[in-house]
Structure formats: structure tokens, C-alpha cells
Automatic annotation (TrEMBL):
<keyword id="KW-0472">Membrane</keyword>
<dbReference type="InterPro" id="IPR030470">
    <property type="entry name" value="UbiA_prenylTrfase_CS"/>
</dbReference>
<dbReference type="InterPro" id="IPR006369">
    <property type="entry name" value="Protohaem_IX_farnesylTrfase"/>
</dbReference>
<comment type="similarity">
    <text>Belongs to the UbiA prenyltransferase family. Protoheme IX farnesyltransferase subfamily.</text>
</comment>
<feature type="transmembrane region" description="Helical">
    <location>
        <begin position="286"/>
        <end position="309"/>
    </location>
</feature>
<comment type="function">
    <text>Converts heme B (protoheme IX) to heme O by substitution of the vinyl group on carbon 2 of heme B porphyrin ring with a hydroxyethyl farnesyl side group.</text>
</comment>
<dbReference type="GO" id="GO:0048034">
    <property type="term" value="P:heme O biosynthetic process"/>
</dbReference>
<dbReference type="GO" id="GO:0005886">
    <property type="term" value="C:plasma membrane"/>
</dbReference>
<protein>
    <recommendedName>
        <fullName>Protoheme IX farnesyltransferase</fullName>
        <ecNumber>2.5.1.141</ecNumber>
    </recommendedName>
</protein>
<comment type="pathway">
    <text>Porphyrin-containing compound metabolism; heme O biosynthesis; heme O from protoheme: step 1/1.</text>
</comment>
<dbReference type="InterPro" id="IPR044878">
    <property type="entry name" value="UbiA_sf"/>
</dbReference>
<dbReference type="Pfam" id="PF01040">
    <property type="entry name" value="UbiA"/>
</dbReference>
<dbReference type="InterPro" id="IPR000537">
    <property type="entry name" value="UbiA_prenyltransferase"/>
</dbReference>
<feature type="transmembrane region" description="Helical">
    <location>
        <begin position="94"/>
        <end position="117"/>
    </location>
</feature>
<feature type="transmembrane region" description="Helical">
    <location>
        <begin position="123"/>
        <end position="141"/>
    </location>
</feature>
<keyword id="KW-1133">Transmembrane helix</keyword>
<feature type="transmembrane region" description="Helical">
    <location>
        <begin position="28"/>
        <end position="44"/>
    </location>
</feature>
Length: 312
């Protein structure tokens, strides 16, 4: 267990509403909401707009619960990392036990309400996702293995499957492909960040790949995962959630993504340090556009399909 989970951290200042919102990791939540919404809309079964709205809302709340539980457990790590030191718990604005209570309450509420609003399977799926992120990734994998991002990435890849389950009550090859798209994208995305944030992870004692195996090995891993990701992403275009729009986006972005990964692989550490990891930072920004654009294209195909214009 982490220090944050053993010794409650007292808040040193009065928390504001924005501090509790920050506990929910709104930027991560936005990705959860978007991919879940795409999964719901892309599903072949129509969903009543009110049910769809409620379902996405409860999925968002579940994502926020995961964020709060993650911040509760990782408060000791966050306190020593530059990019996280100002988060609500390490800064003393919110107590650790407050975050734990909020996370547990939101988790229970979101899962029960999703089950009632949509179907029991989607509610159970959301509960499993929260458990996977808060326990399997945060408590177990993150501090134990350099494969933390690889395995733990599944938690961030489940939302489109949950959205699909809201509509269909189950799982299909299309929802699995959306899961795999996020799952395979996660390692190169986070390893690019780790290349220029290595010192933060070293200070916190997190066994990120850059810390345990070094930057050169991390660069090779980024290329390897990008080579696996590209055919998966392009191949998805030939399924029922793909089409000409998706294929055009996928081809262009995967060419750019692979080119960026190869540029990272060819870099030596002296050159990277000299320009402040400019290429690595650029690749990280591209990775954000990459995932959003793929899911936006899936959404576009679904909307076009509604008017008889999407798909092949």
C-alpha cells in the first residue's frame, strides 16, 4: 500500500469546488466520455436520446470515480512529481480520506445508475473498469512492473466497449477493435511522455520503462507498438464501423505516426537533450490528435450511415 492509503493527509486549506472537479481528472474523463459516446453511436442498435445521455453521464461519473481513487492512492507519488505536485491532495487542499470517500461514492452511484438506465451488463462492465483502473493498475501494476502502462492501458480502452454494451447489451468484434485501438495506442503515447519526463518517474520511484530499461529501449518499444498499431487501425476501416472517411483518416495518421516513431527511434540521447526533446514532445502531441481523429472518423461514419451514406 502507498503512504497515502495508510496515513490520511489533512487538508491545509479550504477546498474549492474546482478542487473536487480536479480530483475527477476532467481531461482523462473527456477521453472516456468521447470514446464511450462513439462506441454507443457506432453500435448497430439505436438508443433513445435520453437513455444515451444518461448512460454517457454515468460513464463519465464512473471515470471521475476512477480518477479520484487514483489520486487518493497516488498522493505520495504526486507530491514529488513536478507535473502533479499541485493536485488537490498533495497540495493539501483536499484530504486523502475525502478523496477516497468521494471516489467510492461516485463509483457505486455510477455503476448502479448505468445498470438501471441501460442494462445490467453495462453497469457491471463499468464496475469492472473502475476496479481495473483503481486496483489492478493503480495499486498493483503501476509500482511493480515497467509493463504498467501496457497492461493498465486496458482500463482506458474499455469505455468504447461500455458504450457499445449500453446499446447492444453485449460485446462484438467491432467493440473489441475499438478497445484494441486505444489499448495499442496507450504505450507509445505514454512512453513518449516518459522520454521527456523520466526524472519525474525516477524521483517518484515509478518503474516506467525509461527508468528500468533506459530511453534507448523505450524508443525501440515505441516503434514496435506503432508497427503493431498501424495495421490494426487501418484494418478496422474494413469493418462495419469503418468506411472511406475512416480509411482516409487512418492511412494519413498512421503514416505520420509511424514516421514520428521512426524519428524517435533514430535519435540519440545527446541530440534529444540538446533540443529539449522536441521530437518526442511533438510525437506526444500527435498521439493526442491520433486517437481523437480515429474515433471522430468512426463517429462520422456512424452519422453518415444514419443517412445511408456511410460505410463501404
Amino acid at each position: 500500500m502507498s503512504d497515502a492509503s495508510i496515513t490520511p493527509q489533512a487538508a491545509t486549506g479550504e477546498a474549492e469546488f474546482g478542487d473536487y472537479i480536479a480530483l475527477l481528472k476532467p481531461r482523462v474523463m473527456s477521453l472516456v466520455v468521447f470514446t464511450a459516446f462513439v462506441g454507443l453511436v457506432a453500435a448497430p442498435v439505436p438508443v433513445h436520446p435520453v437513455i444515451a445521455f444518461c448512460a454517457v453521464l454515468f460513464i463519465a461519473i464512473g471515470g471521475g470515480a476512477s480518477g479520484a481513487l487514483n489520486m487518493w492512492y497516488d498522493a505520495d507519488i504526486d507530491a514529488v512529481m513536478k507535473r502533479t505536485a499541485r493536485r488537490p491532495i498533495p497540495s493539501g487542499r483536499v484530504g486523502a480520506q475525502e478523496a477516497l470517500g468521494l471516489g467510492l461514492a461516485l463509483a457505486g452511484f455510477s455503476c448502479v445508475m448505468l445498470a438501471l438506465a441501460a442494462n445490467v451488463f453495462s453497469g457491471l462492465f463499468l464496475a469492472f473498469t473502475i476496479f481495473f483502473y483503481a486496483v489492478v493498475y493503480t495499486i498493483w501494476l503501476k509500482r511493480w512492473t515497467p509493463q504498467n502502462i501496457v497492461i493498465g492501458g486496458a482500463a482506458g480502452a474499455f469505455p468504447p466497449m461500455i458504450g457499445w454494451a449500453v446499446a447492444t447489451g453485449g460485446v462484438s468484434i467491432e467493440s473489441v477493435l475499438m478497445f484494441l485501438l486505444v489499448f495499442m495506442w496507450t504505450p507509445p503515447h505514454f512512453w513518449a511522455l516518459a522520454l521527456f519526463m523520466k526524472s519525474d518517474y525516477e524521483t517518484a520511484g515509478v518503474p516506467m520503462l525509461t527508468v528500468t530499461h533506459g530511453r534507448p529501449a523505450t524508443r525501440r518499444h515505441i516503434v514496435a507498438y506503432t508497427l503493431l498499431l498501424a495495421p490494426l487501425a487501418i484494418g478496422t476501416g474494413f469493418t462495419s464501423i469503418g468506411g472511406p472517411l475512416y480509411m482516409a483518416v487512418a492511412v494519413v495518421l498512421n503514416v505520420l505516426f509511424l514516421a514520428g516513431a521512426l524519428r524517435i527511434w533514430r535519435r540519440d540521447e545527446t541530440q534529444a537533450a540538446a533540443d529539449g526533446y522536441k521530437v518526442e514532445r511533438s510525437f506526444f502531441r500527435l498521439s493526442l490528435i491520433y486517437l481523437f481523429a480515429h474515433f471522430a472518423a468512426i463517429l462520422g461514419e456512424a452519422v453518415l450511415g444514419h443517412y445511408g451514406m456511410g460505410g463501404w
